[in-house]
From TrEMBL:
<dbReference type="Pfam" id="PF00003">
    <property type="entry name" value="7tm_3"/>
</dbReference>
<keyword id="KW-1133">Transmembrane helix</keyword>
<feature type="signal peptide">
    <location>
        <begin position="1"/>
        <end position="33"/>
    </location>
</feature>
<keyword id="KW-0297">G-protein coupled receptor</keyword>
<feature type="transmembrane region" description="Helical">
    <location>
        <begin position="824"/>
        <end position="846"/>
    </location>
</feature>
<dbReference type="InterPro" id="IPR001786">
    <property type="entry name" value="GPCR_3_mGluR4"/>
</dbReference>
<dbReference type="InterPro" id="IPR017978">
    <property type="entry name" value="GPCR_3_C"/>
</dbReference>
<keyword id="KW-0812">Transmembrane</keyword>
<keyword id="KW-0732">Signal</keyword>
<keyword id="KW-0472">Membrane</keyword>
<dbReference type="Pfam" id="PF07562">
    <property type="entry name" value="NCD3G"/>
</dbReference>
<comment type="similarity">
    <text>Belongs to the G-protein coupled receptor 3 family.</text>
</comment>
<keyword id="KW-1015">Disulfide bond</keyword>
<dbReference type="InterPro" id="IPR038550">
    <property type="entry name" value="GPCR_3_9-Cys_sf"/>
</dbReference>
<dbReference type="InterPro" id="IPR017979">
    <property type="entry name" value="GPCR_3_CS"/>
</dbReference>
<dbReference type="GO" id="GO:0007216">
    <property type="term" value="P:G protein-coupled glutamate receptor signaling pathway"/>
</dbReference>
<dbReference type="InterPro" id="IPR001828">
    <property type="entry name" value="ANF_lig-bd_rcpt"/>
</dbReference>
Length: 912
């Protein structure tokens, strides 16, 4: 410094490229004062430049603002500490001393550009031929320091501005804090390197953090400039590629914010209140002012801040606004505290640190006192004694980027050491080849640096673009006991995220992660209907009917035999049911059937026991047993219809479904046909008709039955019996009630065809019953048969609409099965009750009537029947008086004969 004061300088001339630029300084003393007031200079064999934000950006057109204690002084002293350590190290650059020229950037890129011109003075060609001082004398130039490399700058916007001029003069630059992805462009910033990872890694880490939190709707906030804008751009690009995060708003903080600007930013962020998470790529000053604005607008606890490494674990942005910053998640390149620097810095005092021209100002700020009448601090502050001690009389915590400053200085030193080792082999001190270091050659050594004593405990290396690998620690700002707030490490990122969600705490210590989503996640079984243009906003629509949630955006129809699961996230088999024995639909027909079977069995046993009695023989024993068999089968089919369907049950159903009715109505048809033929024949002659013997009646009956069996066997051949599960029968609108019905593969048409022949026999029998209705009941049982058939027809006429009218009902299986079985049981009961119960009653309770009667010739029977028929006909054609007269006349002629044959008529009537 003394040597500098002795140098007389009339003017300094700087020439950039081909332009000649000269600032004529009128006073040497003024020039030196201005220069040294904003720079630190240490002599050395090799001079390194340094750029640090010692002061904040000034307001209202002022270049520099308030002092930055941590970001400025700590980092600056870290460079001085590293230079001291290297100069004392006998193994690193032995016999070579490093010097420095450190400048204040005042956190402003344009001001930093002006300051950085100092680094290129020695490389500018000076042409003094046209320059004369005021008195006409030629100018006297001060020999400038030759800067071979620069450490810095801090802000990316400053580094970009400075890198543009340093590359013109091939001066390598190593930054300790600039992370803008733009600086990775090796074609534009080929002389730029950094010991911190670029924001492209940081942006990826922040996207991973947001994704891990389950946040898909966030806002971004960036300080105007390369760092903020590039960081946000990288975040938006990565989030767009990943597809899981949407940007609600992307706001920018101006370089020169107007009054109220930050309040407007908070209000803008509140316009999308669901986007509570705010991704911040902003400088320290802007972060502090954003938090303050949120506090003023009573938004404490609303915003979920995610800060970049410019926030990191710094105290300055959150001082006196701890609650509004609570829960903030921040990221910082992986680092470790440098214990040696702590000892060094705590030992600094006004007496032993005169080389730092800003240390006195720091002293005042740090201890809140003033130094003399020229102190920077104004007001009624106490006077500094100079005996204060850092860390004892003030709080001290090592600034987060200190280790990276040290790494940057050591990276430059290791590059110079290797360069010296190769170019100056065996030479003590600087050899001639290194007296004028070529910047491009030095850059190649810098890019090849690889040493394992980095301050963070990891190797210091550079890739082909001059970037350091991505290693980050993740912090959360937590208030632990309502009073103490601190940054806690909750994870790290090295190519992928490792986050301890259990260690996170939010407002009031709540461990549950707050939401920052445009739309709440859809419930299971609901699909997302995306709002056009905003992929993170959607409406939830439930999958209806038999649809399930195939993925988050679509519902698909379950296979026909399946239904949606309870939460509609998949399909499950539809339960298969059958008619159970304990069901009311089964209990009633089974009860009726059992009564019918008991009654039928009782009648059969009675007839067998009294087989040779007149009343049994007169009933036509052979056809009676056939008819009773049919009645028994009609009752028994109920059990087959309710039994669990399988191949055997389905086979028996096909055989016996129509067989019982076929037995019954074939026998009745044979009986009625016989009666009709007898009396029709009697009208023509006294000769008995053919085929009226019991054997003939059996042949006719079984011939009729054989057609039913033939049809069944053809059905077996064409369509073998098998079971099916009918999922359509009980496919209700509500899938919960859907059931598959286990049943035999018998369609309604097949069922009608199976019963159709029996119904045809029944109708034919009814026709004959109508034709023989005029036969006196004393001659035959035509009238009971007629009543049986009329009732049966009514039953089956009622059956048809019930059976087919319930085809679309969910209870179809139960209704149709119950209707069919009850109808068959009722038909059998009518036949049994009208045709056989009177006879059983006589056999059991009036055996005196069950006696042999005198037989009469067929001729007498026919004559009597014919006479009865004629009388009936005349009775219907004439008035009552006339009929009665003619009847009397006819009867008087044959009175004697009728009296003789009355007993034989009754007996014959029993036989037929």
């Amino acid at each position: 410094m003394a040597k500098e004061k002795k140098r007389s300088v009339s003017c300094h001339c700087f020439f950039l490229l081909t332009a000649k630029c000269c600032w004529l300084l009128t006073s040497m003393q003024k020039t030196e004062a201005q220069e040294h007031a904003h720079s630190i200079r240490l002599e050395g064999d090799i001079i390194l430049g340094g750029l640090f934000p010692v002061h904040a950006r000034g307001e209202r057109g002022v270049a520099c603002g308030e002092l930055k204690k941590e970001k400025g002084i700590h980092r600056l002293e870290a460079m001085l500490y590293a230079i001291d350590q290297i100069n004392k190290d006998p193994d690193l650059l032995p016999n070579v001393t490093l010097g420095v020229r450190i400048l204040d950037t005042c956190s402003r890129d344009t001001y930093a550009l002006e300051q950085s011109l100092t680094f290129v003075q020695a490389l500018i060609e000076k042409d003094a031929s046209d320059v004369r001082c005021a008195n006409g004398d030629p100018p006297i130039f001060t020999k400038p320091d030759k800067i071979i490399g620069v450490i810095g700058a801090s802000a990316s916007s400053v580094s970009i501005m400075v890198a543009n001029i340093l590359r013109l003069f091939k001066i390598p630059q190593i930054s300790y804090a600039s992370t803008a992805p733009e600086l990775s462009d090796n074609t534009r910033y080929d002389f730029f390197s950094r010991v911190v990872p670029p924001d492209s890694y940081q942006a990826q880490a922040m996207v991973d953090i947001v994704t891990a939190m389950g946040w898909n709707y966030v806002s971004t906030l960036a300080s105007e400039g390369n760092y903020g804008e590039s960081g946000v751009e990288a975040f938006i690009q990565i989030s767009r590629e990943s597809g899981g995060v949407c940007i609600a708003q992307s706001l920018k903080i101006p370089r020169e914010p107007k009054p109220g600007e930050f309040d407007k930013i908070i209000l803008r962020l509140l316009e999308t209140s669901n986007a509570r998470a705010v991704i911040m790529f902003a400088n320290e000053d802007d972060i502090r002012r954003v938090l303050n604005a949120a506090k003023r607008n009573n938004q404490t606890g609303h915003f979920l801040w995610v800060g970049s490494d410019s926030w990191g674990s710094k105290i300055a942005p959150v001082v006196q606004q701890e609650k509004v910053a609570e829960g903030a998640v921040t990221i910082l390149p992986k680092r470790a505290s440098v214990d040696g620097f702590d000892r060094y810095f705590r030992s600094r005092s006004l007496a032993n640190n005169r080389r730092n021209v800003w240390f006195a100002e720091f002293w005042e700020e740090n201890f809140e006192c003033k130094l003399g009448s020229h102190a920077k601090k104004l007001g009624s502050l106490k006077k500094c004694t100079g005996l204060e001690k850092i860390g004892r009389d003030s709080t001290y915590e090592q600034e987060g980027k200190v280790q990276f400053v040290i790494d940057a200085v050591y990276a430059m030193a290791h590059a110079l050491h290797r360069m010296h080792k190769e170019l100056c082999t065996g030479y003590i001190g600087l050899c001639p080849r290194m007296s004028s270091i070529d910047g491009k050659e030095l850059l190649s050594y810098i890019r090849a640096v690889n040493f394992n004593v980095g301050s963070a405990g990891t190797p210091v290396i550079f890739n082909e673009n001059g970037d350091a690998p991505g290693r980050y620690d993740i912090f959360q700002y937590q208030i632990t006991n309502r009073s103490t707030a601190e940054y806690k490490v909750i994870g790290h990122w090295t190519d992928q995220l490792h986050l301890n969600l259990d260690a996170m705490r939010w407002t009031r210590g709540d461990p549950s992660i707050p939401a920052s989503v445009c739309s709440v996640p859809c419930k299971p079984g609901e699909r997302k209907k995306i709002v056009k243009g905003v992929p993170c906003c959607w409406h939830c629509e439930r999958c209806e009917g038999y649809h399930y949630q195939a993925n988050e955006f679509s519902c698909e129809l379950c296979p026909y035999e399946q239904r949606p699961s309870e939460n509609r996230t998949g399909c499950q088999p539809i339960p298969i049911i059958k008619l159970e024995w304990h069901s009311p639909w089964a209990i009633v027909p089974v009860f009726i059937s059992m009564l019918g079977i008991i009654a039928t069995t009782f009648v059969i046993v009675t007839f067998v026991r009294y087989n040779d009695t007149p009343i049994v023989r007169a009933s036509g024993r052979e056809l009676s047993y056939v008819l009773l068999t049919g009645i028994f089968l009609c009752y028994a089919i109920t059990f087959l219809m309710i039994a669990t369907p399988d191949m055997a049950v389905c086979s028996f159903r096909r055989i016996f479904l129509g067989l019982g009715m076929c037995f019954s109505y074939a026998a009745l048809l044979t009986k009625t046909n016989r009666i009709h033929r007898i009396f029709e024949q009697g009208k023509k002659s006294v000769t008995a008709p053919k085929f009226i013997s019991p054997a003939s009646q059996l042949v006719i009956t079984f011939s009729l039955i054989s057609f039913q069996l033939l049809g069944v066997f053809i059905w077996f051949a064409v369509d073998p019996p098998h079971t099916i599960v009918d999922f359509g029968e009980q496919r209700t609108q509500d899938p919960e009630n859907a059931r598959g019905v286990l049943k035999c593969d018998i369609s309604d048409l097949s069922l009608i065809c199976s019963l159709g022949y029996s119904i045809l026999l029944m109708v034919t029998c009814t026709v004959y019953a109508i034709k023989t209705r005029g036969v006196p009941e004393t001659f035959n049982e035509a009238k009971p048969i007629g009543f049986t058939m009329y009732t049966t027809c009514i039953i089956w006429l009622a059956f048809i609409p019930i059976f087919f009218g319930t085809a679309q009902s969910a209870e179809r299986m139960y209704i149709q099965t119950t209707t069919l079985t009850i109808s068959m049981s009722l038909s059998a009961s009518v036949s049994l009750g009208m045709l056989y119960m009177p006879k059983v009653y006589i056999i059991i309770f009036h055996p005196e009537q069950n006696v042999q009667k005198r037989k009469r010739s067929f001729k007498a029977v026919v004559t009597a029947a014919t006479m009865s028929s004629k009388l009936t006909q005349k009775g219907s054609d004439r008035p009552n008086g006339e009929v009665k007269t003619e009847l009397c006349e006819s009867l008087e002629t044959n009175m004697n004969e009728r009296k003789k044959s009355q007993m034989s008529e009754k007996y014959f009537n029993m036989l037929i």
